[in-house]
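name: query_chain
kind: protein
chains: 1
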Amino acid sequence: MCGIVGLHLRDATLYPRLGALLTDMLGHMCDRGPDSAGMAVYGDPVWSPPGHATVSLLDNPATAEQLAESLTRATGVEVIAHDLAPTTVLHAALDATELAEAVRAHAPDARIVGFGSGLTVLKGVGNPGELAHRFGLPAAQGWQGIGHTRMATESAVTAEGSHPFSVGPGQCLVHNGSFSNHMGIKHELERHGVRFDSANDTEVGARFVAEQLAAGADLEKALLLLNERFDGFYTLLVSTSDSFAVVRDAIACKPAIIAETDRWVAMASEYRALTDLPGVENARIFEPEPEEVYLWHRQ
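structure:
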């Protein structure tokens, strides 16, 4: 049992409140996943300023400032670091892939858990609400955010094993449930050169989606293909640099609720996570149907 929350803002006047709203939603899901938590924010001007790429990493062997100084010397572009332990967040006026490659070269033992233009991923072990406040999530701004509270079933309780899994530029996936045939798909992806960072079944789903997108599929097609290939019981929330999508398996036994207004679209494992959103009393509220992809794009 895990908890999923996500918020896609249509109204720019709400952007300054994204982090506070997401923190509140995450707090309602703590009892669904007390082990660890992760969150992703799109568009925060401090963690990922306009025109900058951001890389989030765990297991940084140096201090955040030391790594930033090393990367600045190597790239010739100023790299700024934020120490949000255990996550280190770096941003610079570089291409996201270029910054990620520089991080891998100068901190080969670190694990990149998110990268992209405008995307910040934060992960940690412990109470999700406490983690959100420690990271400073209530003050975050932006146009989209997702969060996950984890109760580990498939792998160890570590920051690396927490969701979201962000394995392609600007992409994130959070998951409630389990895939029963993920090992076969993992081995197939490995034969095609895909490398994995964990034993988590969710990473297999994230890598599969990333491969489909890289091959030219749009997000809807990628998730329809996932439904065809993966067995198990699952609800997924998938975000990209311009999209927000929800999909469930054919049985749809893992809970999910969607609320939509002119100002925002929100998704959560339970309705209680949506109760404090502005104007929720006027929202269209519904449960997503099995195997149907629900997709919204940034305007």
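note: Helices lie at 18-28, 64-75, 96-106, 128-135, 182-191, 201-214, 219-229.
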